[in-house]
Design a protein that fits this description.
The chain has three helices and 28 strands. The protein is mostly beta strands. The longest helix has 18 residues. 43% of the residues are buried.
């Protein structure tokens, strides 16, 4: 069955590449707010697909699940506050969030029930640490395990894997200082991390060894940590689980870049990211990626940087999240203009 789905996706992609495609708005939740100051209080920072119909998003301190089919709210978890990271497991129908008060929570996406929560004290006890501040998290998609990365240790073994009950620590592994972005490969065997000082690292979870490393390894705790303002930095990192890596170099308010890196052949394709603050998602089965961000445009490209389809000004303010649907035929966009939007990708003329 899985092979049939992948084959269908590849055939659809080849058709779209050959004929060109259109992007059409098919769902919008919320009224666009044109004034940036007025929009800020209600902006949507995180949005993800749970399955082919349901979407979960964060706005105004609440987490909400909505159906794109019925347009009805399924459930709301209120009072979450501002969050600093977010991960959805479509296989397990779970959402993990990291709140600004250093509380880690897991929500059942079918019911909206919070099935796990741990503040800093409880998390420290679980991990056997004296003091810890979680900084990034990511699900191992297919089995519900949760990876937690820490601020408290600036180098070395500062990432931990919790079992699917979140009551037991299975193992830990090494990453570099201050993780900025973390993602797990589709089959769940590798984790890709962007860390302080523009470190890019892909770690094999079974062997705890680097599959790929770029940057300067931090081998001892630094006395101070500094950050340059408006300097280019890596912002998104996706690992196919095989030879392809895709990452973005964000250039603040100037134009950034997208890199498609084959670690087997060492060949790197790079092309215009079309935004300063880039938002990216990747569909490895269809060899497509989508970018948006400060420009408010929406662009789907192939892995060589060729434009499959493009639509200008899909929202009125900067877009903060973008994600392909499970079948990669639609695109979800969360915007600072207070809207949640879904766009279809269809062959031209159909």
């Amino acid at each position: 069955m899985r092979l049939l789905v992948i084959t269908a996706l590849l055939l659809a992609f080849l058709t779209l590449s050959a004929a060109g495609a259109d992007i059409d708005l098919i769902f919008r939740h919320g009224e666009p707010i044109k004034d940036p100051k007025a929009a800020w209080a209600g902006h949507i920072e995180y949005a993800s697909w749970i399955d082919d119909e349901r979407i979960v998003y964060w706005s105004r301190g609440d987490v909400t699940c909505i159906s794109t089919k019925t347009r009805q709210i399924q459930w709301v978890v209120r009072g979450v506050g501002k969050i600093s990271d977010w991960s959805v497991s479509r296989d397990m129908k779970r959402l993990a969030i990291l709140a600004e008060n250093d509380t880690t929570s897991v929500i059942d996406c079918n019911s909206g029930k919070v099935i796990f929560t741990a503040n800093r004290t409880r998390m420290s006890k679980m991990l056997g640490l004296d003091f810890t501040i979680p900084s990034r998290l990511a699900f191992v998609h297919n089995d519900g395990r949760l990876i937690i990365c820490m601020f408290s240790t600036f180098y070395g073994r500062n990432a931990y894997i919790l079992d699917a009950s979140y009551e037991k620590t299975l193992t830990s592994f090494d990453i570099d200082a201050l993780p900025r972005n973390i993602s797990v490969s589709p089959e769940g065997s590798r984790v890709a991390v962007i860390a302080k000082d523009d470190v890019l690292c892909v770690r094999d979870l079974h062997s705890n060894r680097d599959v790929f490393f770029r940057g300067k390894r931090i081998t001892e705790k630094p006395d101070t940590l500094t950050s340059a303002i408006d300097a280019p930095f890596y912002s998104h990192f996706r690992d196919s689980g095989r030879e392809l890596l895709i990452y973005t170099l964000d250039n603040s308010w100037a134009t950034g870049k997208v890199f498609v890196h084959n670690i087997k052949t060492t060949k790197i394709n790079s092309f215009d990211g079309r935004n300063g603050h880039i938002e990216l998602d990747v569909s490895f089965p269809t060899r497509q990626l989508v970018v948006t961000g400060t420009s408010t445009d929406l662009t789907v490209l192939d892995f060589d940087g060729h434009v499959i389809t493009h639509k200008k000004n899909v929202t009125t303010q900067r877009n903060a999240s973008v994600e392909f649907s499970p079948l990669a035929d639609r695109i979800l966009v969360g915007s600072w203009d207070n809207t949640l939007s879904v766009f279809s990708i269809t062959e031209k003329g159909k």
